[in-house]
Amino acid sequence: MVNFVSLIAPLSYIVVLVGSLGVFSSLYRKRKAAKAASLEPWFPPHTTRDIYLSLLHLEGSKTVSDSILKAALMLRAKEDIKRLMALRQSKNSLQMLLQKGCVGDDLWTRFSVAESEMEEELRDVVMEANAYKEGWGQIIFQTANEMVNHDRVRERSERVAADAAEERKWWDEKRARSARELLGEEGTSDSDGVLVENVKKGGKGKK
Fold first, then answer.
1. Which residues of 172-200 are buried (b: 16+ CB within 10 A; e: fewer)?
2. Distance between CA atoms of residues 112 and 87, nearest Å
3. What phi, psi does 128 have (nearest 5°)?
4. pLDDT of 76-115, one tens digit each?
5. For residue 122, what are the CA distances in angstroms to 81, 90, 112, 118?
6. What is the pLDDT of residues 155-175, one digit of tens each?
7. Which tens digits make up the pLDDT trace of 52-74?
8. CB neighbourhood size of 52 (10 A)
């Protein structure tokens, strides 16, 4: 027969150990959550999301049409795409810096919180899109990504045009400066020639 008395001590130890680990784990999670909440957010305030939610919760005569809400939701998804790209671009380099000890755990905590918030944000946008039209949630981010790429191409073209205009202005100024310098040298040469000629004439007169 099993001697239950002899098992009381080991079982009590296990119970105490499990309870202690449970308390420690709970305290650690609370402390970690409190620390994460006190850290500076990875991204600035999500303005387009706030605008959409403000429009969505307008009441009475201030309510807006679905077309305006859809446009506001699209702008929100567009901003999400930009933030998602930024997170993906930063993750690998941040992991390498963390492994080398070049950055602290606080920075990684901020990044992890931003990733979790982004996952929740994407799910929320998909749900909102499907509420307007079934299936829109599956393509809204594809459309937003195309809009972001279009904006990047346009901004790049504008920068190229601005750089070309600046370079053209620089060359025009350089050409004008060179022309002025050349005209100045020619004027000096003409004056010197006249002076030499007068000297020669004066010399002949004395003879």
1. eeeeeeeeeeeeeeeeeeeeeeeeeeeee
2. 10
3. -65, -40
4. 999 999 999 999 999 999 988 888 888 888 899 999 999 9
5. 9, 19, 15, 6
6. 888 888 888 888 888 888 888
7. 999 999 988 788 999 999 999 99
8. 23
